[in-house]
Amino acid sequence: MHPRRLSTLLSKRQQLGQIAAAIDALQKRKDADLKECVRVIQSCARLGALAEGRRIHQLMRRVGLGSDVYVSNHLVMMYGKCGSLEEARLVFEATPAKNVFSWTILITVCAQHGRSQEALALFYEMLKQGIQPHSVSFTAAINACSAGPEFLPAGRALHALLRRYGFQDAVVATTSLVSMYSKCGSLEESMRTFESMTEPNAVSWNAMIAAFAEHRRGLEALRTLQKMFLEGIRACSDVVVGTTLVNMYAKCSGLHDANAAFVKLQEPNIITWNVLISAYVQHCCFKEAMELFRRMLLLGLEMDEVTFINILGACCVPVALEDGRAIHACVREHPLASNHAPLENVILNMYGKCGSLQDAEAMFKSMSQPDVIAWNTMIAAYGQHGHTSEALRFYELMQEEGVVPDDYTYVSVIDASCANAGLPEEAHAYFVSMQQDHGVRPGGGHYGCMVESLGKAGRLSDAETLIQCMPFEPDVLTWTSFLANCRSHGDMKRGKLAAKGAIRIDPEASTGYVALARIHADAGDFQEASRIRKLMLDRGIRKNAGRSIIKLGTSVYEFTAGDQSNPRSKEIFDELKRLDKEMKSAGYDPDMAHVAHDVEAGQKEPLLFAHSERLAIAFGIISTSPGTPLRIMKNLRVCGDCHTMTKLTSKITRREIIVRDSNRFHHFKNGSCSCKDFW
DNA sequence: TTAGGGTTAG
Predict the structure, then answer these.
(1) Nearest to A170 by CA among A133, A144, A120
(2) Which nucleotide, over all strands, has the C1' atom closest to the CA of A136?
(3) Domains of chain A (ranges plus CATH)?
(4) For residue A160, which of A150, A145, A149, A148 has the smallest C-alpha distance?
(5) If residue A547 lies in a helix (H) or strand (E), which one and from where to where?
């Protein structure tokens, strides 16, 4: 049995039951078993069980041990851990023969509850009363000074006093000083203190590394520290220190430094590997993350739930479905990872994000007790794929199963109810019921979905009113979705408003500028259009080029509009021409309006003909056997003409084509799309 | 026979 699993075998409830039983047993006895009593007090402290703690306190008083200093000290600690400072203080005051432990414990309790002034006052009162402090008393008082720069003078005074008492070599107290100086803003004093240490241990190293990471300008110093660490200058080769270094580099410097720190370590452990993989995933370097994971497999290294959770984060894109499935298979073979709810939810999410609802459904069915996150994930997945009724059915079902919906549930429910039906009334009904029947307060996400639902239905004036009335500043997503709806309904006036809103919230993104320039151009104001384009370029913002990705086997192929760089480019264009001919004979006419509306556009038909997703689809067709489904990812919204074209292609070629665009999934099958032409 | 420092994955 894994140690972590073992420790959770007894739930908190069971442990509380044991304590209660122990107190009952003690009450029945005539004599007092001091050892057993203290053991119970300690358990109460560990579990934060205030009620049980009070019962045992009562019992101690009854048997005449209420003011025994050893017992009192434990009671003070217990009340402190349970968050009742007043009771801790009362027990302390009522203890006649206070010793250095009594004082130090109360100082610690005060410091841990942010009562720094009180802690310091106690420390000096203790000295005044002639109690000889221990180095632990200093540690507690120094900690009280970590609360902020305003305590720096008090911290320095304690440092001086510590030396006078001859505790300058006490490693724990000195490590506290390293931390305290950093938290009070004085990296220099933190470094000086660390350098003064004769035998810093792993904890001291970590405190120093954390200090450098906290102060961005400490990066160079961090490199020096790493060098010392690697060369064993101060005799520390702790793997946790090495892992902390990797993590700090990933956070403060970048992947290059993190990787360099990793490869230099003699014995990275599972957590070191997890930290590095997580860093790659967070920097969106999915391919490199997968390579690391494969290396772990090849080396036969032990993996845990976190390894799987991290690496699955790299598989949440349709082109990674096969990788995701392979990792799911690894999980099934891993005894410790099965039945781990967060991991199961991540797998479920991965299938949804990869566009495979069948896999998601199978996963969901296999879960013994899906929690609210699992239900939310399914509802969101159905909504994203345009399966509104399934999403809403799951919403009903979860409540029948006794799972209480949360605010995330309603974002997905409202989003699903307006996904393709264009029925804002339904979305609005959920928006109202969420508040009235379920007590969920609407957040930015809920309002965003409502704006989207009204916008899709063409009720742009209502959407605009909602934007004006909502108690939040609309986020960039809300503005861009409103913008897209204004454009598709030809409302240029409101489109301008939305574009300006998008630019205001995210001046670094190109979407707002491009849209605004296009609206002015459409209205014939070319001067204003070119002014906006220039403004965008002056701010160093580049237009987001349309890109589509398709994965065949283990290779990933990327296409941009009009791209001829693929070695099979001629065949791709021949296939597009062939499809085009077939479509035209079936009565299809390319819709030129979409050229002007689309971000990729330039000239008319030739470029429309070669939009990135079309190239990817044609490449998929000529590279796979008939009937194979195609999975494509696009970074922008699919334009109307490509949407029509893909519908027809799915019919002509009898293939399922799944396109994940920047907004949602489109399942093209037999001439129609799951979004029912609302997107 | 009690009290103290730091850090690592979701």
Answers:
(1) A133
(2) B4
(3) 473-543 (1.25.40.10), 547-673 (no CATH)
(4) A145
(5) strand A547-552
For residue A135, give the nucleotide whose C1' atom is nearest its CA: B4
CA of A451 to C1' of B8 (A): 42
Which residues 6+ apart lie within 8 Å of A72 measured at CB?
A66, A91, A92, A94, A95, A102
* DSSP secondary structure letters along A105-174: HHHHHHHHTT-HHHHHHHHHHHHHTTPPPPHHHHHHHHHHGGG-GGGHHHHHHHHHHHHHTT-TT-HHHH
Residue in the block written with tokens 């001046």:
A507
* Structure tokens, A679: 């997107």
Is the separation of the CB atoms in A360 and A352 below 8 Å? Answer: yes
**∠ CA(A496), CA(A677), CA(A499), 5° rounding?**
10
The token duo for A559 is: 């296409």
Interatomic separation, CA of residue A105 and C1' of nucleotide B10, rounded (Å): 35
Residues 24-63 of A with CB under 7 A from strand B: none
Given a cut of 80, whether residue A226 has pLDDT beyond it is: no
pTM of the model: 0.80
Question: Please, which pLDDT band fits residue A422 given cuts at 50, 70 and 90?
Answer: low
How do residues A492-542 score in pLDDT, each as one tens digit?
Answer: 888 888 888 888 888 888 888 887 788 788 778 888 888 888 888 888 888
For B1, which residue's CA is nearest its C1'?
A: A70
Protein CA A239 to sugar C1' B1 (Å): 34
Please check whether strand B approaches the CB of A136 to within 7 Å.
Answer: yes
| Residue numbers in A 274-313, CB below 7 Å of strand B | 274-275, 278, 282, 304-306, 309-310, 313
**Which alpha helices (DSSP H) does A320-437 contain, by range?**
321-332, 341-353, 357-366, 372-384, 388-400, 407-417, 424-436
Adjacent-strand bridge partners of A667: A658
> With helix as H, strand as E and coil as C, how does A177-201 read?
HHHHHHHCCCHHHHHHHHHHCCCCC
A257 CB inside 7 Å of strand B? no
pLDDT digits (tens, 9 = 90+) for A572-624: 888 888 988 888 887 766 554 444 334 334 444 555 678 888 989 999 999 99
What is the rounded CA–CA span in Å between residue A495 and residue A580?
A: 33
- Whether A386 contacts A675, CB under 8 Å: yes
Q: What is the pLDDT of residues A97-113, one digit of tens each?
A: 999 999 999 999 999 99
- Closest to A269 (Cα-Cα) out of A292, A299, A226, A302: A302
Q: Which tens digits make up the pLDDT trace of A454-505?
A: 888 888 888 899 888 888 888 888 888 888 888 888 888 888 888 888 888 8
Residue nearest to nucleotide B6 (CA to C1'): A203
Residues A275 and A243 sit within 8 Å (Cβ to Cβ): yes
Q: Is the CB of residue A176 inside 7 Å of nucleic acid strand B?
A: yes
Residue numbers in A 407-446, CB below 7 Å of strand B? none
Could you check: is the Cβ of residue A240 within 7 Å of any atom of nucleic acid strand B?
A: yes
How far apart (Å, rounded) are the C-alpha atoms in residues A186 and A219?
Answer: 15
Burial class (CB in 10 A: 0-12, 13-18, 19+), A185: middle
- A541, two tokens: 């913002």
CB A115 within 7 Å, strand B: no
Considering all nucleic acid strands, name the nucleotide whose C1' atom is nearest to the C-alpha of residue A80: B3
Nearest nucleic acid nucleotide to A310, CA to C1' distance: B10
C1' (B2) to CA (A169) span, angstroms: 23
Residues of A (81-100) placing their beta carbon closer than 7 angstroms to any atom of strand B are 99-100
Helix then strand count (H, E) for chain A reads 37, 6
- Mention every residue, 6+ apart, whose C-beta is less than 8 A from residue A367: A344, A348, A374
